[in-house]
Amino acid sequence: MQMSEVSKKVYVYLENGTFLEANSFGADDTVVGEIVFNTSMSGYQEIMSDPSYAGQFVTFTMPEIGNVGVNNQDMESSKAHAKGMIVRKYQARYSNFRAEESLGDFLAMHNIMGICDIDTRFLTKMIRTEGAMMMVASTTISNKDELKKILEDSPRIEDVNYIEQVSTKVAYKHETSTYSETKFEYEAAPTPEANIAVIDFGVKRNILNEIVSAGIGVEVIPNDFSADDLIEKYNLKLIDGVFLSNGPGDPLVLKKEQEQIKKLIAAKIPMFGICLGHQLLSISHGYDTFKLKFGHHGGNHPVKNLKTGLVEITAQNHNYNVPDNIVEIAEVTHTNLFDDTIEGLRYNDSPIFSVQHHPEASPGPKESRYIFSEFLSLIKR
Fold first, then answer.
1. Cβ neighbours, 10 Å, residue 104
2. 296 belongs to the catalytic site
3. CA distances (Å), origin 96, targets 50, 62, 66, 102, 364
4. Which one of 95, 108, 293, 340 is most buried, by most CB atoms within 10 A?
5. pTM reported for the whole predicted model
6. CA distances (Å), origin 248, targets 96, 237, 253, 295, 296
7. What is the pLDDT of residue 31?
């Protein structure tokens, strides 16, 4: 691991044959992952610590990255999960009164590669045209043919179950509410009006904070949960509902989780899903997801709420989407105005709803945070 800032050359090979030379910061290594781009203007630390980015290199369209440093309060999980970050200009000299260390030191500590001094406009336009693709980056191997062989011999992102890597291994209570951006401290948590089980597929801390802030007690449980146990707890009134979290990778590979969710659906337990949870609910109802060309990653995606007619600017992070024919069993509540894909569903014969975007918006606008209160209303009904 290299603890210095911009340390040495890094060589990048993409599966379409593109071969590039850049500089590195963070960890020295040879790493394989899927390359995507993110259009967020801020929040690079939240993005890198979001478990949903496990297995991916994130190309930032914001050209200047690192200038506000890193601090412990802005972590979305216990560590950085992305394979690496790709930026036009890395700023090692940070300036922010909340900063505790540089981004480069943070990446090195978590053994994550940073790539800088590279044309991110070129990469973004290429991904937009050709789609998300696999890549390999190395600070130790400069031979194009050797890198190509490494990439060809490595599993693709859809072949890896990253949920096993990011989900909690033991159940725990989460009692922290939302962070005040004016007082620079966490708000007092309200008295819970209901209690739920959160199934952790890679949940973000600020999703848990928003659930607590809405007046819901939270117990986070591993991805290898037992539906029978949850149904028993629901019947005994120990829990009032279930939340299915965000997470990385292809939802179609999560066969065990789908079978357990089918049992929860049959038991008519109130449920709310975000991102991967939204996709798993679709699959468990018999409607398989499909992969988008380059996904939705950023904090500026317009989503129309079909109930209110309002357009919400949302935070997004996903490569997969639910199919249009799911309208056979569910009402579409939200649509993406960039490409008309489905962003929200309310199921016709079940107390279940879900959204594709991230209403906790960390980073990003908070125009969709009302959805957490809607979950409490659903539980009460």
1. 27
2. no
3. 22, 18, 11, 11, 19
4. 108
5. 0.95
6. 30, 31, 11, 13, 13
7. 98
